[in-house]
Design goal:
Elements lengths: L25 E8 L4 E8 L4 E6 L6 E2 L16 E4 L8 H10 L21 E3 L17 H10 L17 E2 L2 E2 L1 E8 L4 E8 L56 E8 L3 H18 L11 E10 L4 H25 L21
Parallel strand pairs: 5-6, 11-12
Antiparallel strand pairs: 1-2, 2-5, 3-12, 4-6, 7-8, 9-10, 10-11
Helix pairs in contact: 1-2, 3-4
């Protein structure tokens, strides 16, 4: 039995790119610093978009997530930034804010001459400081410029694997990376983008079969059979070293999106349901030293038809899509081009 859904199957199917940008109204930009082994990914809506967040990890690093609570003033954002670099990486949002503000985009508190709009850019970071790259940046870390470059290069197509915020990532005992996937359904389009830097394993104890294999479509991450998808209690597969050596070097950060018009509270429910995709694809996840964060965006290109039942279906699809995106990010990851043989975590393809 193969985990890949058969071609021509009825029901929801991936969009033409199988990327989050199959959701109408979204672009994605990425930028890397190869020497530092780090990078930035920006999800850029065409217009201000309703956004929510769900934080499950015990060690998150975020910016402006409190502003996204449904009861607070801000109801829409101008971009979402995902970055490597730990605390330094939060500065990537400064670059995005500068780029957006220079183009007159943002939340207008006072709509009159001389008062610029304020771009709202929530962000989350992962830890890639111990991967061997050159982090001797002193008082000039690269993240502000990487954020600006990512915005300037945003478009419908982008690289997966060792790219963007997932450039310096490790997924358990394997090379991590940036993954994305999409599904188009009668209820609406759903897409996911994730930067996988997990402590837990994305593969079963055989080191090859992705935990997300049951959700795979058309062999998008190897098409392996389900035979290897088994584990006993405490058998996680290739994860990072046990704490303290492998702890505090993690975090999986993600964004799911839909073209269905959602309220902030409904977007929050979408983010909550989407988090289950991480649990389907990473074992274990949401540990005390993970900083797992999932954002949810609504580009509001079509109405929500069917109320809470439709929202529940979208949330279920978002979880499945995020699980697929996790596996795709690791499947597409390659070794760092400057790494000598044997340095850094092995790419999944090298363990086959």
């Amino acid at each position: 039995m193969n985990g890949a859904a058969p071609k021509g199957a009825t029901g929801p199917a991936p969009g033409p790119r199988n990327l989050i940008t199959d959701v109408p109204g979204l672009a994605v930009g990425q930028a890397e610093d190869v020497g530092a082994r780090t990078g930035v990914t920006v999800i850029l809506p065409d217009d201000r978009a309703v956004c929510a967040v769900d934080v499950r990890g015990g060690g998150p690093g975020t910016r402006e997530t409190d502003a996204l609570a449904p009861e607070n003033l801000v109801e829409a954002v101008d971009a979402v930034v995902l970055s490597g670099g730990s605390v330094w990486g939060l500065a990537a949002a400064d670059g995005a804010v500068a780029w957006l503000g220079a183009r007159g985009r943002g939340f207008r508190l006072a709509d009159r001459p001389g008062v610029p709009p304020s771009p709202v850019v929530p962000a989350a970071i992962l830890f890639d400081l111990a991967n061997g790259g050159d982090k001797a940046w002193g008082e000039d870390p690269p993240y502000r410029e990487l954020g600006r470059r990512a915005c300037a290069g945003a478009g419908p197509d982008f690289d997966l694997g060792t790219a963007g915020a997932g450039y310096g990532a490790a997924a358990g005992g394997l090379k991590g990376g940036t993954g994305s996937a999409s599904l188009l359904s009668a209820d609406g389009a759903v897409g996911a983008l994730v930067c996988v830097n997990s402590w837990g394993s994305v593969a079963a104890p055989d080191g090859r079969t992705f935990w997300a294999t049951p959700f795979e479509i058309d062999g998008e991450f190897g098409g392996l059979p389900l035979d290897g998808l088994r584990a006993g209690p405490g058998q996680w597969g290739p994860s990072k070293a046990p704490p303290p050596a492998g702890a505090r070097q993690n975090t999986t950060i993600a964004c799911v999106a839909t073209d269905v018009a959602l309220t902030p509270a409904q977007a929050r429910r979408l983010a909550v349901m989407a988090q289950d995709g991480l649990a389907r694809a990473i074992r274990p996840v949401h540990a005390p030293f993970d900083g797992d964060v999932v954002f949810a965006l609504s580009t509001a290109r079509r109405p929500l038809v069917g109320g809470d039942a439709a929202l529940a279906r979208l949330g279920a699809l978002a979880a499945d899509t995020l699980a697929r995106a996790v596996a795709r990010g690791v499947f597409e990851a390659t070794a760092w081009p400057d790494a000598p043989p044997g340095e850094g975590p092995p790419a999944w393809r090298h363990r086959r």
